[in-house]
Design brief:
With about 500 residues, this protein is of the alpha/beta class. The protein has two domains: about 200 residues, Aspartate Aminotransferase, domain 1; about 260 residues, Type I PLP-dependent aspartate aminotransferase-like (Major domain) (Aspartate Aminotransferase, domain 2, 3-Layer(aba) Sandwich). A four-stranded parallel beta sheet has the order 4-3-5-6. Strands 11-12-15-14 form a four-stranded antiparallel beta sheet, with helices on one face. The chain has a three-stranded antiparallel beta sheet with strand order 2-8-7, sandwiched between helices. β5, α11 and β6 form a beta-alpha-beta unit. The radius of gyration is 24 Å and the shape is globular. The protein binds pyridoxal-5'-phosphate.
């Protein structure tokens, strides 16, 4: 392994020494050398094209073998729309049901307890819960500040039906919610009402892993639990025989890259029986009538929640993807990602300007206790001025480093990380709406001097030491640079364009 070069570079003595030091300090990483072999073959396009991919929380990467196995299946079979009795339909029905079973097995979920509903993505799974959960007056929807917008969005369904929406804040520096605070919120439930508690198993912003024993604590206090596993499942084992959340939304492309367009709501039958669908669609009913003006839902089975035709040709690719992860081993992926995250956190926090000031400010834990491989940060110049995230993203892009900037659809963590107050945010939701995130960014920065944007790197199954090393080399370019030093023209805001055009 020691002759691996940093991506796109000739073998270099500093890289070799850094790798040796890393392997000495993280011996567990060496147990995952089969992933290096896999990367060289199945993910060869990364190094052939010189990419450093650091956006696994945005989307996982597919292996070449997944695509060819799926293609072979499609080219050597004839598949029709499932749920009919003709041979091409029956063949497809069989594969759809096989995929459903494979998902349950992958997450060790008992088929007597859980079912799998296929959706277009995790957001589709969340919307199913939001629109069907029996929110009611004096019932509650409790959720952490640390949530993806598709979980935040459920508050609109809750409020529309008169439920109380209760946000539990996370605190700096680690962006965790103290358990006492969570329990205090859970104690508020009126057990005679329907109450839903939502939290992410892993934050898509900070990488924080929230305690899974909150699930039992919530159940004991009269809550149903929605555990958002979209950012957790790609690099962690979710064992649904050990924890028993009621609703588990996820997207498969985040775990193994291909196919996109398929997610799932893994749901407990008991909890599913409480849901009331606000409409019916093809495939979700036993019978309906135009003249009889009624409908009977297929509830509580999975089919009652799958509107119209599922993405049936893509579903066998989900089973192929699950087998791919099983062959690699989710525990090996976890070990590898945590080793690389640990090295990155240590190395990034050790970068200093000549005046002793730190270059990297991390939002979230600076060690790997109860966290995953997603790191949110800002680069700060020697005077304490943050580098504009757009400048950093453009510079990374020029080196084929894919990282992500913005708020990652997780505004709650961003607001806490950047010390933004309720008052500072509320004014953007009355009167004229900013035309884009960039305009909002500029308006807020001008008004408060604060920067509501963050940079995020995230590791995943095909990450290797060379990716981490190349990224840190890139960061060192910012040492002793001033935030305003490099000439750079930001995209003009809509307001600026209008002003210019009017002049
Ligand atoms: C924690 C979390 N939940 C939900 C989602 C929504 O996933 P999708 O965009 O696939 O619907 C994401 C996407 O990044 C996420 O990270």
């Amino acid at each position: 392994m020691s002759d691996i070069a940093a991506n796109g570079a000739a073998p270099n003595i500093h890289f070799a020494a850094a790798l040796q030091d890393f392997l000495r300090r993280c011996p567990a990483y060496q147990t995952t050398s089969h992933v290096d072999a896999l990367r060289a073959e199945d993910y060869a396009r990364l190094d052939r094209l010189g990419h450093v991919y650091l956006d696994y929380t945005g989307g996982g990467l597919y292996a070449a073998s997944q695509v060819s196995a799926h293609q072979e299946m499609l080219l050597n079979n004839v598949f029709g729309n499932p749920h009919s009795q003709n041979p091409t339909s029956l063949a497809m029905t069989h594969l759809v049901e096989e995929t459903r079973d494979a998902v349950l097995r992958f997450f060790n979920a008992s088929p007597a307890e859980y079912t799998v509903i296929f959706t277009p993505n995790a957001s589709g799974a969340l919307k199913l819960v939001g629109e069907s959960y029996p929110f009611e007056a004096d019932g509650r929807y409790a959720l952490l500040y640390d949530n993806h917008n598709s979980v935040n969005g459920i508050r609109e369904f809750a409020r529309a039906r008169g439920a109380i929406v209760d946000y539990v804040p996370v605190s700096l520096p680690e962006l965790r919610a103290p358990t006492a605070r969570v329990l205090a919120a859970l104690e508020q439930a009126d057990r005679r009402r329907h109450n839903l508690f939502a939290f992410p198993a892993q934050s898509n912003f900070s990488g924080v892993q929230h305690p899974l024993d909150w699930i039992d604590a919530a159940h004991a206090r009269g809550w149903d639990v929605l555990l958002d596993c979209a950012a957790f499942t790609p690099t962690n084992r979710l064992d649904l025989s050990h924890v028993h959340p009621d609703f588990v939304p996820l997207s498969f492309y985040k775990i193994f890259g291909y196919p996109t367009g398929v997610g799932a709501l893994i749901a407990r039958y008991d909890a599913l029986a409480k849901l009331h669908r606000p409409w019916f669609a093809g495939g979700t009913i036993t019978i309906t009538s135009v003249q009889g003006d009624g409908w009977h839902a297929l509830i509580p089975g999975a089919a009652g929640f799958e509107d119209g035709t599922v993405n049936y040709l893509a579903l066998p690719a989900v089973e192929i993807g699950l087998h791919h992860i099983e062959r690699i081993g989710i525990d090996a992926i976890h070990t590898r990602v945590i080793a690389l995250t640990s090295w990155l956190l240590e190395t990034m926090t050790a970068l200093h300007h000549s005046n002793g000031a730190r270059l990297v400010h991390i939002y979230g834990p600076e060690n790997t206790d109860a966290r995953g491989g997603t790191i949110a940060f800002t680069l700060v110049d020697p005077t304490g001025e943050p580098f504009d995230f757009r400048r950093v993203e453009a510079a990374a892009g020029a080196r084929k480093i894919s990282l992500r900037t913005g708020c990652f659809c997780n505004p709650g963590d961003g607001e806490i990380a950047h010390h933004l107050s309720r008052e500072e945010m509320a004014c953007y939701f009355t009167g004229k709406a900013p035309s884009s995130f960039y305009e909002f960014y500029d308006l807020l920065h001008t008004a408060t001097g604060k920067t509501p944007s963050t940079i995020r790197v995230s590791l995943g199954l095909a990450s290797n030491f060379a990716d981490a090393y190349t990224f840190v080399q890139f960061l060192t370019e910012f040492v002793d640079r001033r935030a305003d030093e490099l000439p750079w023209a930001p995209e003009p805001t809509l307001a600026a364009i209008r002003q210019r055009d009017a002049a």
